[in-house]
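User: What would this chain look like folded?
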Amino acid sequence: MIETMIHAFVGPLTETFFQKALIGGGIAAVVCGVVGCLVILRGMAFLGDALSHAMIAGVAGGYLFMKLVFTVEAHAPSMLVGSLLAAIITVSSISFVSRVSRIKDDTAIGIMYTGVFAAGVVLVSVFRNYIHIDLVHFIMGDVLGVADADLWVAALAAAAVLSVIVLFFRYFQLTSFDPIMAASIGMPVVLIDYALTTCVSLVVVSAVSMVGVILVVGLLITPAATAYLLCDRLDRMMFLSALFGVTSVIGGLYLCIWLDSSGGGAIMLFCTFQFIVVLFVAPRYGLLANWMRRRRMVPQQLVEDVLTCVLRAGPRGMSRSSIALHVNASSERLAKALRSMTREGLLEQTDGDFVLTQQGRQEANRVLRAHRLWETYLRQVGLAVTEVHRKAHELEHVHDKESVAYLDDILGHPVRDPHGTEIPRDQNSCIPGNVCSISLLGEGTSATIEFLRSPAREIGLETGDVIRVGSREEVDGAWQLHLPDGRRIRLDHEQADAIDARIVTVPENV
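Assistant: Here's the prediction, encoded as structure tokens.
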């Protein structure tokens, strides 16, 4: 049994065709893995597929040229040159169509590569007496039948591409992650993009004749995607991608020998299997890790319900049993939420009761502010006063800064909700030193005028004036400003929004 297993692994290594397949597939896997990282980071996966399919036109053209001009059968270098020309034509056509029309890049790729691919198929069929290319072989590849010329072409192309990647790694890295910054510091972004496209073309055309269209696209994308699930650094990602590519070739070749199947198909099957395994078990971005994080996660809505519940209880806090009466959650989930909130510094326990920390109070006030603004809005649109609390409890979790600021503004920055309860102020309007509009300042706040816009320029205020905000008028909600010289200035909503002031002091009870 053991001898049989050893022979199953060692036996193929003694065969010349297997050795060539390992070398050729390994070379293709390494260079495809390295370049593939840049391809998927830039969202160019479809371009690699397009170039690989467009190669048939270049291969057919090179074959036909050698046959008609030199009356010899085409060989790898001539087909490589033809394939490069086909790649240049394909990329140029895609760039031209997307630049001169409203067609986007992905659509232009789909149009042009299918057109070039179709041209190659027609060329092969029309000149079938001169061109002896097996389309099935071209698409599926025959990694077990690698020729010596294919190995030399692949090795030279890989050396050239890897040299370019190493020499200009920093340029490729920066333009892949932040092309705007790269352009702002003077990097030739367009030239770098063309260099990468040329590298992709060279990789594809040097490997297609050896491993086929499907395998070269798979080796360009799948190992890089697998590595992307495991790391956040480009250099490590490239190393892992090349490693996954090589292991795919090794595992796939053994698989094809054992199953007596297609070499390219077996390699891609093993490569995809690797990706699926990593997709499940990756420590940070895998499905299992995501499931465990979600299992440990406490719903944000539950956290906010607990915060507002404890806030309403006052400084003495609440016991766990009291919180359970007001929060709709199972005892297990509530206990997990309380532990998590204590660990994150939102709550602390004092004599068995939970009280808010400073951070927890700020978060609770933010949610409570949203709740009471939603109550005010719902009452204003006609909802019965007995229903506004229940409905606002559902909407209070929509409390992102922009939404709450918009809601506050269209309501005219109300001070109290429909039940007569005070609405907590915006936290930025309660911090000395911050600059905000007069409309956001609460009663008793002192501030210095920083900027006046129309229509507030003709009301008797100047930049540098120190003001104190008085109580809001009950009838129309106007703002009252008190100046040191005894003057009182009344502002409507539009005028209050047009004045920016730097907060000096705020009342102690805020």
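Residues 64 and 70 are 10 Å apart (CA to CA). If you want, I can go into more detail on any region.
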